[in-house]
Write a structure and sequence with these properties.
heterodimer, A: alpha/beta, abc type-2 transporter like fold, 4-stranded mixed beta sheet, 4 strands, 7% strand, B: alpha/beta, Rossmann fold, Alpha-Beta Plaits, 6-stranded mixed beta sheet, 32% helix
Chain lengths: 369, 587
């Protein structure tokens, strides 16, 4: 009966690949998503627009401004000359922040008196505000040190020397792109499998399939295989892009990564087929996919840390296969993890996969829906 | 009165990967105003393309079209809004109720609000849909949907109405009602109607008929004038002691017979145009058969279908007679291959099949007839194991297919009502898939695929996508796929719905030959004439069996003093009307 299962899988492949449009869907959007997410989705801030209001004509403020100018993170867009100009700049989102040097900034520093520096920030996007403020802080920190050493004042009692592990340059793409592997693979396999039974039901071919000697289990396997194979191919393409195009270090064991992918695909295919079995039309299947996809991505820790979620929501994340895969991809890419360290991530996906596939098989058997 | 529709040398071709297709080839005709004209022709003869060209949905490559005094080339949009057109699958909104659909189309055609109640009343009365105004149109039967579609078109009565196969898949009772509506519009509103159809009895009732084949119009005549072309060439053959369908297989390859088909309790013959019909030789050949007595050949009036078949068989040189279908069968199964006892199926409160019992013998062609929604398909689906029975028992070749092991399903072949093969797989990929799904060995697969391609003449199409085949070829492919594994029992759910008379005849020749090899065939159909091919048949209505027996026994049920020779269709309508008092639709 292996022959019949394989025949079914081949049929699924042909049905997908012979159609120009569905072929394009398999190749185009995932690559596009990879590039868009890879470049656009970043937590780093570049070209923060800054306005300067400098009432001080001394050396200190000029030095400080030149440091801002030299940083790729900032972009000075305007120099303001009077107080009343400040509000419109922030209100109209011309600049994200305004740095105000008071009239005695340099004089005070020369006299070793603390000189306040006013920073006005647009707080409408709190996250961005916090990050840009931090950048300013680090510039200020360097400035202080430099000033102190150059002007012979007492050196600061102690200085921080932060060193970030795994992602030494704090590149957010290192965090985001390994996550994309899971995200795009999930979208593709879920869509393919969710449509597979629903399409047959909509076109009436499912009955023709059910009257053949194929058992529900065989139909299930025949439909699951193409999803897993296509998912593995898509993931491989993205992994190659991540390593060679985006230069993300691949530090861990490839085998451990693929074991994780395989288990992940098993659970994704199980969920996709379950959605497909309870849908009667392709439209319902697509809708079902989205109802699952959106929370699955939000709960996976792809963008926001799971540790910050309320406890009840945190329990929910254990049902999300993407959660486990993200730990695996980030672990293998950045930390160099191997099988033993990742074991706690493997088995939950296996359980999700087996449960969903068994449910689908049971629904098939009942043939009620 | 000038004609509302004139075509002069209109052509339309489509680019295709293999070769350009000339769908409409230099067509010229003028429609008679205030009459119903039928447009008939085999599948893929260009009827639908022609309809679409006349409604400005497709632009003709060349030629001149004038509709209601407007020129298509310059006033196409005005034409579109002034004529009424009902395509094959009319755009009813299935999630709207009957009333909401009517309102929608009244709005689309900007019918003044004050005129609506009166118009609605007339249309609902005519269509018999008064009681269903609040029902979702998706939940109407096929016949009711078509009537609603027609009502939507007629909200603002157009002076020219084009209907593209409005009666496909509609049961005989609804079919008669649809035609009554059309004729009433013609009488009341002086409407001109052009209707394409595959039902030749419908064409026969038209004022004039256009016969179309391979994009060309072969003739425009009154049906009676068409019939005159066959004067002296049509005969009736009667015999006793043999099944007519068995006798039919003896007539297929005689050079002096152009066509032989089953009539009501006789065989209908058309003699060849160029070879003289040697009646004596035929009779003496047939007398050699066992048990045959009372052989008789008498001249018969030509029927409209004869004209169609004679014209097209003369035109089509490529159509060779179907090859003999050889199949091996397992002789050990019991004699009653299908047994059904008190079978019932409920959907919630609704009882679709109400405790029916029947049995089918080996090698029999068993017909299941009934109006839309009579429970035929539900019964079929239960027999094939696609739907569980609510109560009662059923066995097919000794198994209940729902609970039996998968291997039991190897005994049956199933052909669904709707084309249900993979549309974006090629013909040979479809065949290969089913051969593998039924677990045929490698060498057997190749053999069977080759067999299917040659027997069903699909070789030219083997690399075409199944979804792009003409309807008749799709039906051949489905039939071939159902036979890949040489089943003992064949389930055919409305196999001939929507295909043209030639293809239908070909289909019955094949089925007949299959039954001769001992295969049991269970078939549902809307074409009452086809019931004559069945050894036994069963008529269903509202989930119950109204009558069962041989075609002759069924006919006798309707024999009355004023109708001595009823057809199966007469008997069917008689039985249905006895069961449910008819709605007053002509009031």
């Amino acid at each position: 009966m292996l022959q019949a299962i394989w025949a079914l899988s081949i049929k699924e492949f042909l049905a997908l690949l012979r159609d120009k449009r569905s072929r394009a869907v398999l190749i185009g959007p995932p690559l596009l998503q990879l590039l868009v997410f890879g470049y656009a989705a970043t937590f780093n801030l570049n070209h923060i627009s800054v306005a300067i209001y400098n009432e001080d004509q001394g050396e200190a403020s000029r030095q400080f401004i030149s440091q801002i100018e030299g940083s790729p993170n900032f972009n000075i867009i305007q120099y303001v000359s009077k107080n009343s100009d400040i509000a419109p700049i922030i209100n109209n989102k011309e600049a994200l922040m305004l740095i105000h040097f008071g009239p005695n900034f340099s004089t005070n520093l020369q006299k070793n008196i603390t000189a306040p520096l006013q920073v006005i920030l647009d707080g409408r996007n709190s996250n961005t505000t916090m990050i840009s403020l931090n950048y300013i802080r680090s510039i200020l920190f360097t400035f202080n040190q430099k000033w102190a050493s150059e002007h012979g004042s007492k050196s600061l009692p102690s200085t921080l020397q932060p060193r970030t592990w795994y992602n030494e340059n704090k590149q957010s793409s290192w965090f985001i792109i390994p996550g994309i592997i899971g995200l795009i693979t999930l979208i593709v396999t879920l869509t393919i499998t969710a449509l597979s039974v629903a399409r047959e039901r909509e076109e009436g071919t499912f009955d023709q399939l059910l009257v053949t000697p194929l058992t529900p289990l065989q139909i299930l396997i025949g439909k699951a295989l193409p999803g897993i194979i296509i998912g593995l191919v898509e993931a491989t393409v993205i992994i190659i892009f991540a390593a060679y195009w985006f230069d993300i270090p691949l530090r861990g064991n490839i085998g451990a990564l693929y074991l994780g992918l395989l288990l992940f695909l098993l659970s994704a295919v199980g969920i996709g087929l379950m959605i497909s079995t309870i849908s009667t039309t392709q439209q319902q299947a697509i809708l079902g996919t989205f109802i699952f996809m959106v929370p699955a991505v939000l709960l996976s820790g792809y963008a926001t840390p799971i540790e910050n979620m309320p406890e009840i929501i945190q329990w929910l994340t254990y049902l999300d296969p993407l959660r486990y895969l993200l730990i695996i991809t980030r672990g293998v890419f950045l930390e160099g993890d191997s099988y033993t360290l990742l074991f706690p991530q493997y088995w939950p996906m296996l359980i999700i996969g087996i449960t969903t596939l068994a449910t689908t098989g049971w629904l098939f058997q009942k043939r009620v829906v | 009165m000038t004609s509302p529709l004139q075509l002069k040398s209109v052509s339309k071709s489509f680019a295709s990967k293999e070769r350009p297709i000339l769908a409409v080839d230099n067509v010229s005709f003028t429609l008679t105003p205030g009459k119903v004209t039928g447009l008939i022709g085999p599948d893929a003869s260009g009827k639908t393309t022609l309809m679409r060209v006349m409604t400005n949905l497709l632009i003709a490559d060349s030629g001149h079209i004038q509709v209601l005094g407007l020129d298509m080339a310059t006033q196409g949009h005005a034409i579109q809004s002034s004529l009424g057109y009902m395509p094959q699958s009319f755009g009813l909104y299935e999630d709207l109720t009957v009333q909401e659909n009517l309102d929608l189309y009244a709005n689309l055609q900007s019918v003044p609000l004050e005129e609506r109640p009166k118009r609605y009343k007339i249309l609902l009365e005519m269509t018999g849909l008064q009681a269903f105004t609040q029902r979702l149109s998706g939940q109407l039967s096929g016949g009711m949907k078509q009537k609603l579609g027609l009502a939507c078109i007629l909200i603002r009565p157009p002076s020219l109405l084009l209907l593209d196969e409005p009666t496909v898949g509609v049961d005989p009772v609804s079919r008669r009602e649809l035609w009554q509506i059309i004729y009433r519009q013609v009488a009341d509103e002086g409407m001109t109607v052009l209707v394409s159809t595959t039902y030749l009895d419908e064409a026969e009732r038209c004022y004039e008929v256009l016969l179309m084949h391979e994009g060309k119009i072969l003739g425009q005549h009154k049906p009676a004038d068409f019939n005159k072309t066959l004067t002296g060439r049509t005969f009736r053959l009667e015999a006793k002691g043999i099944l007519y369908r068995q006798l039919l297989t003896q007539l297929e390859y005689r050079s002096d017979i152009l066509d032989a088909s089953l009539g009501e309790d006789n065989i209908h013959l058309i003699s060849a145009a160029d070879t003289p019909f040697d009646q004596a030789a035929l009779l003496s050949d047939l007398r050699l058969l066992k048990h045959v007595t009372d052989l008789r050949i008498t001249p018969a009036p030509a029927q409209f279908e004869d004209v169609f078949i004679a014209t097209l068989k003369a035109q089509t040189t490529t159509l060779s007679p179907p090859k003999k279908i050889k199949t091996v069968i397992n002789k050990t199964s019991p004699e009653d291959v299908i047994k059904v006892v008190k079978l019932e199926r409920r959907f919630g409160d609704f009882v679709a099949v109400k405790g029916i019992s029947f049995s089918v013998r080996r090698g029999e062609i068993f017909g299941l007839l009934g109006a839309n929604g009579a429970g035929k398909s539900t019964t079929f689906r239960m027999l094939c194991g696609l739907l569980p029975a609510s109560s009662g028992s059923l066995s097919v070749a000794g198994h209940d297919l729902r609970t039996a092991s998968a291997t039991a399903r190897r005994n049956i072949g199933y052909m669904a009502q709707k084309f249900s093969l993979y549309t974006n797989l090629s013909v040979s990929q479809n065949l290969r898939f089913f051969a593998k799904a039924y677990g045929l060995s490698k060498s057997r697969q190749a053999e069977r695929i080759q067999w299917a391609l040659t027997t069903f003449e699909l070789t030219d199409y083997q690399n075409s996508n199944a979804g792009e085949l003409p309807l008749g070829f799709k039906q051949r492919l489905s039939f071939a796929a159902a036979l890949m594994h040489e089943p003992d029992i064949l389930f055919l759910d409305e196999p001939t719905s929507g295909i043209d008379p030639l293809a239908r005849q070909e289909f019955w020749q094949r089925t007949n030959a299959l039954a001769e090899t001992g295969i049991t065939v269970m078939v549902t159909t809307h074409f009452m004439q086809e019931a004559n091919y069945c050894d036994r048949l069963m008529i269903m209505a509202e989930g119950q069996v109204l009558a069962a027996g041989t075609p002759n026994e069924i006919r006798q049920l309707a024999t009355t003093d004023n109708q001595a020779m009823p057809s199966i269709e007469d008997a069917f309508i008689h039985l249905i009307e006895e069961h449910t008092p008819p709605q007053d639709i002509t009031s």
